[in-house]
Design goal:
Elements (H helix, E strand, L loop, with lengths): L32 E7 L3 H11 L4 H9 L6 H19 L7 E10 L3 E6 L5 E6 L2 E9 L6
Antiparallel strand pairs: 1-5, 2-5, 3-4
Length: 145
Amino acid sequence: MADTEIKPPRARRAPPAPRSRPNRPAPPAPGPHASLRFLRLTPRKVRLVADTIRGLPVGDALAALKFRPQSAAEPLAKLLRSAVANAEGKGGRVDVDALMVKTLTVDQGPKMRRFMPRAMGRAYRVEKKTSHVYVELGTAGRSRP
């Protein structure tokens, strides 16, 4: 028989150390906010109305939305009133007159895909888009650093 060498077992590697995160300050806690998801209007149409009230005091924004002819004005007004109610309920003593629309973002939600019959037996896809809207309120004197 030939001499066979027995190899020692391979040493296991230590698991990699977890990556350390850079020293960043924690994001500030959001103020009073509300969100509306799956709004059955296209984000492009909602942004047209949202751009007119961004940065306005809440009272002026609600008055502006009341007289807008676009169909996106009504859900945005309801969302704004919900954010004000959240501010009153959560914060306790909040001066509603001092609140303003600090952040208002409109993102695209999922698309509903439907099909439309066309000539010669073809079918065209119709995409019914939805929107996600997020509003955050703040006071006029306070701003983020």
